[in-house]
Specification:
elongated, single chain, 9-stranded mixed beta sheet
Length: 929
């Protein structure tokens, strides 16, 4: 049997798109055709569904389970977690409950999903304080595959009515935070947020108690933003997705929320975060970058190399249910009555919840303006407005109801007659069949939401219009505008004149244009269904987890402190190379903020490291080198008191803390480019608020970490374009891009290229006669400087390192003059230490650009050692006797690294060096006894 394009080329399945295309093809081939029964009740439990059995089940690559008895895949369990269960529960007795299934959009979405076995977890909407009632309700809901979360009245009041409906919902719909007394508001914020977190933890406890390995957990909406974090803390391997059914506001709106950072980080614990539109997804990523200072990527948000995928998944409806309903006898009877009732008049329809965000007053006022300007239509058009009451006990909603009634009465009194009125307003909901009939007879549907997550009324209208071919007027602030915008007339609901003109355009539209618009929208509604939305989200979630696992495999393991310490104690001559910034510095980033700019610009040694460093430096058989990109003054200020070696500006300057500074720079190093680059950096610093640049003797660094994220990136891009086409087009320089910095340095200036010269001077100065048999190299180094890790790598193919013994020479004035007329140097060190000696190179190849590569040579010292004089006549000897188990290279905070091991933060470094220092000190004491 010939294979398809996926089976023939298995390489396609290694990509995310390839895997998702295969899943899509499988779903299409295995899709079960919908039933033709228009009266099918909405149920959660399908009798035909195959139940998942934990016993003997294995995992398939696509996330499905395989039944070991017959080898056929069984359904993957899907735990749908929402604030409310899709049922209404009514207590009939002490241990008796009656349940009525709700016909919500989410229920419809998951009805047609055949690849998963769905279970619902949520609040039943009733307070059940007694254990007997809880047990009886749990048993009744189990028959519907529902699992209840029991919330008491106080939690519901603070969590649901308070934080969710009074704070999050208005904020996400751009209505802002409640304008109350500031002190009272602060208190209510805190108490309601505490209840919000407690309720989310209660949901998490229920999920954890029912979770089985391999389940997919799908969290829904703003009620459960804290839930992903709770679930991941319980089980980091759990597949967790979170979807928001409302808009997500711009970062400037979201940042007004007191708990903004905690909520964002909680959501980022999910593997996949979904929104209805790309705009909402973009706002979320922007909030994470601007508020949390994280890195936004095309795929989502990156936090310490962990990627949370963020994407748009526009929801749909069960279009087949509406299409089938049109042919039902009840609907046909309603259609006949409506046509008779409104014969000779065009029917306009609005179906909304009576809510501030639905724009009902704006809609009615626009209709009034249309009637004012078009007398011809006054007795030929009627607006039917269905306003479903909601939150009737809230004063703001009561005020809105009164306002709408007042406007409707005024317009009907102005343009109506004894036999007809232009507006029919109903403050109630309609049953499904009556609503379908109303959609079918409508000529123009009017949706004027001021802000709406999606608005599926527009989808339902299109699905019922296959014969009428009515026109849809749709607010551009509804999420559906991005899906149905091509076939609808898009309007700004705040512009009454524009909406009135759109009404005229719709009523006078030709049959041909109506046909084209409807065909486009109808195709979208019938292909982008709720079932397809749910399947697509879960497939993406499964694949996101696969990608994350592949990413984790490429991440180095955590450094095991006990292993490194054990090898340290067993060795005879040790070399410790430590970075400074983000490695030995005190922490400056606080939770929820992007750090303190002033503190970051003034690098300080972590106070807890003074004792451990003193212990390590006091060991005569241990050499400690601080290798940093910082200038000499900063290293002098922080490490002058220790007995160690300091290598400043990526190793271009070196000194023992007991000696003078000397230079390791190659003789031919050209610094003529500095002045022109300095002018460019000064210009962009002036143009970019909160950016700054550092002038070093061998490089210039422009940092925009604390500038506006997007503006900083644009400025960096402009700067690079200008540099490449102008000042550095013919200069021998390298441009090193950090996450939010741009550095220009001379070619060959890397930590790896300088390490052989540094090592040679250390060996000579300390008169080391015993080969170094232990190396610890640790730092938060840029990718360009990670050649220092591979320099010592024993597993790379190379001959043994042989460094010629050298003698210090006097400072060369020509080098001093080439660097700058006067070498600036500050800090607490004496002026005598500011002089620089020049170190001779340790071999003919040590200053060549090729020595900075990180791939196979391992740095200059890993070149052909025979060229450097391996004989004793030249005074060369084996400096390193390094075995694989005695080399520990460790990256701090960077998972994309060539280092063997990883530490997540500088706090991990502090903990490790404390243990290492204590072990080293104890080892010294034992040797004296």
């Amino acid at each position: 049997m010939p294979g398809n394009k996926y089976t023939e080329n298995s390489g396609v399945l290694n990509t995310r798109v390839g895997r998702l295309l295969r899943e899509r093809e499988l779903r299409r081939n295995n899709r079960i055709p919908p039933s033709n029964d228009a009266n099918r009740p909405i149920e959660i439990n399908h009798p035909s569904e195959q139940h998942y059995s934990e016993a003997g089940a294995d995992r398939a690559p696509n996330g499905r389970h395989i039944n070991s008895s017959n080898g056929r895949p069984t359904k993957q369990r899907l735990l749908v977690v929402a604030n409310r269960l899709p049922v209404s529960a009514v207590r009939r007795g002490e241990d008796s409950w009656s349940l009525e299934i709700s016909a919500g959009g989410l229920v419809s979405a998951l009805l047609g999903v055949k690849d998963f076995e769905a279970r619902w977890i949520g609040w039943a909407g009733v307070n059940v304080p007694d254990e007997i009632g809880q047990r009886a309700l749990t048993q009744a809901l189990a028959e519907k595959r529902c699992i209840p979360v029991f919330l008491d009245e106080e939690i519901v009041h603070q969590y649901y009515n308070g934080y969710c409906n009074n704070i999050l919902w208005p904020l996400f719909h751009y209505l802002g935070l409640p304008q109350e007394d500031r002190l009272a508001t602060t208190r209510s914020f805190q108490s309601q947020f505490t209840a919000y977190k407690k309720a989310n933890q209660m949901f998490a406890d229920v999920v954890n108690s029912h979770y089985q390995e391999g389940d997919v957990v799908w969290c829904h909406d703003y009620h459960l933003m804290f839930l992903p974090k709770c679930l991941k803390e319980y089980n980091s391997e759990m597949k967790v997705g979170w979807f928001l059914h409302t808009p997500f506001p711009s970062s400037e709106i979201h940042r007004t929320l007191p708990s903004r950072s905690e909520l964002l980080r909680s959501v980022l614990a999910a593997d996949l975060v979904g929104f209805h539109t790309y705009d909402y997804a973009r706002h979320f990523v922007s909030a994470c970058t601007r508020i949390l200072g994280l890195e936004g990527t095309p795929d989502g948000v990156e936090d310490q190399e962990r990627l949370t995928r963020v994407a748009a998944f526009p929801i749909g409806i069960d279009s087949e249910r509406f299409i089938r309903a049109i042919d039902a006898p009840q609907v046909q009877q309603h259609i006949k009555e409506l046509k008779e009732r409104f014969a000779g008049r065009k029917v306009m329809l609005g179906v909304d919840r009576l809510d501030m965000i639905k724009g009902i007053p704006q809609k009615i006022l626009a209709f009034e303006k249309f009637l004012e300007e078009n007398p011809y239509w006054r007795d030929k058009v009627v607006l039917l407005q269905i306003a479903v009451p909601t939150r009737t006990d809230v004063p703001e909603y009561q005020k809105l109801t009164s306002q709408v009634h007042e406007i409707v009465g005024r317009i009907n009194g102005r343009f109506g007659s004894l036999t007809a009125v232009p507006i029919h307003h109903l403050d109630r909901s309609l049953d499904f069949y009556a609503l379908c009939a109303l959609y079918a007879v409508t000529d123009v549907a009017l949706v004027t939401s001021l802000r709406d997550g999606m608005n599926l009324v527009s989808y339902e209208f299109v699905a019922c219009q296959d014969s009428k071919r009515g026109v849809l007027i749709l607010s551009e602030f509804a999420g559906a505008a991005q899906s149905l915008g091509a076939g609808a007339i898009l309007v700004n609901p705040w512009n009454i004149t524009e909406v009135a003109a759109a009404i005229g355009q719709a009523l006078n539209m030709t049959v041909e244009e109506r046909e084209k618009r409807h065909r486009h929208n109808f195709e979208h509604v019938t292909t982008h269904t709720a079932q397809q939305w749910a399947e697509f989200f879960v497939s993406e979630l499964n694949d996101t987890v696969i990608e994350a696992q592949q990413r984790i495999r490429r991440v180095p393991p955590q450094l095991v402190a006990s292993d490194a310490i054990k090898c340290y104690l067993q060795s005879n001559n040790r070399l410790l190379i430590l970075g400074f910034s983000a490695t030995l510095t005190e922490p400056i980033d606080t939770p929820g903020r992007r750090g303190d700019q002033i503190k970051e610009m003034e690098l300080k040694l972590h106070p807890d490291l003074k004792v451990p460093l003193t212990m390590l430096c006091s060991d005569p058989n241990t050499t400690v080198v601080v290798l940093s990109g910082s200038d000499r003054a900063i290293l002098d200020e922080n490490f002058g008191e220790f007995n160690m070696w300091l290598a400043a500006e990526n190793g271009m300057f070196l000194r023992s803390t007991k000696g003078e500074w000397m230079t390791t720079m190659p003789e031919h190093l050209n610094m003529d480019w500095v002045d022109s680059i300095k002018q460019v950096f000064e210009y962009f610093t002036e143009r970019t608020p909160r950016s700054h640049f550092e002038r070093r003797e061998t490089s210039l660094v422009w940092n925009y970490k604390y500038a506006d994220v997007e503006f900083g990136r644009l400025q960096a891009r402009d700067m690079l374009q200008h540099l490449w086409t102008g000042p550095i087009s013919n200069a021998s320089v390298d441009v090193v891009q950090g996450s939010r910095s741009v550095e220009v340095r001379s070619v060959g200036v890397t930590k790896g290229s300088a390490i052989d010269r540094i090592l040679g001077e250390i060996v000579h100065s300390k008169s080391i006669s015993t080969p170094i048999d232990y190396v610890l190299c640790m730092g938060h180094f840029l990718g360009r400087d990670e050649d220092v890790y591979t320099f010592f790598e024993p597993e790379l193919p190379f001959d043994s390192i042989r460094l010629p013994r050298i003698k210090p020479i006097e400072p060369r004035s020509s080098i001093e003059k080439r660097l700058s007329p006067k070498l600036p140097h500050g800090g607490k060190s004496s002026s005598s230490k500011t002089q620089s000696k020049s170190l001779p190179h340790l071999g003919p190849n040590s200053d060549k650009k090729s020595t900075t590569t990180t791939g196979g040579g391992g740095g200059a010292a890993y070149g052909n050692s025979s060229k450097r004089g391996a004989s004793s006549e030249n005074g060369a000897w084996n400096v390193l006797d390094l075995k694989k188990e005695n080399y520990f290279s460790c990256s701090v905070g960077r998972t994309r690294t060539t280092a063997r091991y990883l530490f997540n933060t500088s706090e991990d470094v502090v903990t490790f060096l404390k243990e290492l220092g204590e072990a080293a000190f104890s080892n010294q004491l034992s040797s004296y006894i």
